[in-house]
Design brief:
By secondary structure, the protein is of the alpha+beta class. The chain is built from eleven helices and nine strands. The strands form two sheets. A seven-stranded mixed β-sheet has the order 1-4-5-9-8-7-6, with helices on both faces. Strands 2-3 form a two-stranded antiparallel ribbon. Helix 1 runs parallel beside helix 4 and helix 2 packs antiparallel against helix 4.
Length: 339
């Protein structure tokens, strides 16, 4: 077989090799001990002496040519195998993803639900800083200097310049009243901080406070608004009662209870036998608070209310320990879907 025929055949068979094993067989056929190129070198003795030098050079060129083709083919085959492995591995990874579908945190679900209800009633959603001035957190809300809420045991003070971690979202109401003329219909959801730490309280929790300031606003308007909200939130016609209470920034003030969701008002461990569960506080905005915000209390009246998001979430989902919200246990968090 002449050298040109060996070259042509080698090119053809190397290009057809689709695996390293096939390529190794082709390599042996041409470059092995009994390969065609090796045999051609051994047959050099049969070539006339004057042609041996030229013939030997051609065989060496052919050998280098075939070795280069094999090297390129080996790279091609290895690259193809790697791409196949990557494609297969990635496909298997994506197939397993649906097994780990997450759920929206129950606190986030509860906040979203509260916002949706109040927005549907015409309220705006307002936000404010979590690091707050004492004047906004206490003074302008008509909370006296000697009030227990100012004690170090309740409030996280940051420095002597009057900065603290807000204990409620009421400062957002102050900021809105100082910057906006009535009528005002707003809620202020957000994170708040107090020195509490037990199964039903946390030093960091969430509140939603609401404020309405307008002409001819009365207690019955507040009562109706709260009753509608609670009915929509719990998705049932829950009994609601208002108990007289005291807050420095509202007068008159009330605590709001709903009929126990567990026993239906008959009395159980959850409601401590009373048949009622406390869910929020409310009241008519104190005239002094309106005046502190440059709003004429002879023309405008208002009402305010505040609720703990964790409290409502615990009642809705039937959770008995507030700390479960913050332990990041996926087994707990995946249970909750808003109906």
């Amino acid at each position: 077989m002449n050298l040109e025929e060996i070259k042509r055949q080698a090119e053809e068979e190397i290009s057809k090799a689709s695996s390293l094993q096939e390529l190794q067989q082709v390599k042996g056929k041409f470059l092995g001990k009994k390969g065609q190129i090796t045999l051609a070198l051994k047959n050099i003795a049969s070539i006339p002496p004057e042609q041996r030098k030229e013939y030997g050079a051609k065989i060496n060129q052919l050998k280098e040519f075939v070795e280069e083709l094999i090297r390129q083919a080996e790279e091609r085959i290895k690259k193809a195998q790697m791409e196949k492995e990557i494609a297969t591995s990635w496909q298997e990874l994506t197939v397993s993803l649906p097994k780990f579908v997450g759920a929206i945190h129950p606190i986030t679900q509860t906040l979203k639900r509260i916002k949706e209800i109040f927005v549907s009633m015409g309220f705006s959603v307002e936000e404010g800083p979590e690091v707050e001035l004492e004047s906004y957190n206490f003074d302008l809300l008509n909370i006296p200097k000697e009030h227990p809420a100012r004690d170090m045991q309740d409030t996280f003070y940051l420095n002597k310049e009057g900065y603290l971690l807000r204990t409620h979202t009421s400062p957002v109401q102050i900021r809105v009243m100082l910057g906006q003329k009535p009528p005002i219909y707003m809620i202020a959801p957000g994170r708040v901080y107090r020195r509490d730490d037990d199964p039903t309280h946390s030093p960091v929790f969430h509140q939603v406070e609401g404020l309405v300031v307008d002409q001819s606003v009365s207690f019955k308007h507040m009562k109706y608004t709260i009753e509608v909200f609670l009915r929509e939130f719990f998705e049932r016609d829950v009994p609601v009662r208002f108990r007289a209470s005291y807050f420095p920034f509202t007068e008159p003030s009330a605590e709001v209870d709903i009929g126990c969701l567990v026993c239906g008002g008959e009395g159980c461990r959850v409601c401590k036998g009373s048949g009622w569960l406390e869910v929020m506080g409310c009241g008519m905005v104190h005239p002094q608070v309106l005046e502190n915000c440059k709003i004429d209390s002879d023309i405008y009246q208002g009402f305010a209310f505040g609720m703990g998001v964790e409290r409502l979430s615990m009642l809705y989902f039937g959770i008995d320990n507030i700390k479960l919200f913050y332990e990041n246990d996926l087994r707990f968090l995946r249970q909750f879907r808003w109906s």
